[in-house]
């Protein structure tokens, strides 16, 4: 029990000590604490919090605008993709039509060229047939002449002076006709 008394005596001898622990100044400390808290409250409510709220509101609006722009850009991208697909389908259809038209045109030209070539071949074949017929007729005349001359010579050789040229030619002509 002697020690707390000695501690209090030491404290009293040391002076007032820490000012916030001095009971005689509590009223002033409480007053200034309240004034400080009120000042901080007014500074926060009138200056800092509106700025923070404004910044948060601005950020929220910016995010909302960005999301809206993103949605608009997405919608435009989808429309562009749809337009691209339509244009691609149209281009494919046009390409197929052009290919079909070109194929038909080439087929028409090919048919015309084939018909022209067939006509030329038929004309040359007819010409060749006519030429062959001329050659054949000429050959037949030559054969008939040779046959007549040979028959007359044979008859003259076998029966001198008895050869009737008209009768020999008639006999040779009958024999050649079959």
UniProtKB/TrEMBL annotation:
Superkingdom as given in the UniProt entry: Bacteria
TM region positions: 30-49
Location, primary (coarse class): membrane
GO CC entries: endomembrane system; plasma membrane; proton-transporting ATP synthase complex
Molecular function terms from GO: proton-transporting ATP synthase activity, rotational mechanism; proton-transporting ATPase activity, rotational mechanism
One Pfam short name: ATP-synt_B
Entry-linked InterPro entries: ATP_synth_b/b'su_bac/chlpt, ATP_synthase_B_chain
Physiological role: F(1)F(0) ATP synthase produces ATP from ADP in the presence of a proton or sodium gradient. F-type ATPases consist of two structural domains, F(1) containing the extramembraneous catalytic core and F(0) containing the membrane proton channel, linked together by a central stalk and a peripheral stalk. During catalysis, ATP synthesis in the catalytic domain of F(1) is coupled via a rotary mechanism of the central stalk subunits to proton translocation. Component of the F(0) channel, it forms part of the peripheral stalk, linking F(1) to F(0). The b'-subunit is a diverged and duplicated form of b found in plants and photosynthetic bacteria.
Similarity-based family: Belongs to the ATPase B chain family.
HAMAP family from the UniProt entry: ATP_synth_b_bprime
PANTHER family cross-referenced by the UniProt entry: ATP SYNTHASE SUBUNIT B, ATP SYNTHASE SUBUNIT B', CHLOROPLASTIC
Name assigned to this protein: ATP synthase subunit b
Naturally occurring in which organism (per UniProt): Algicella marina
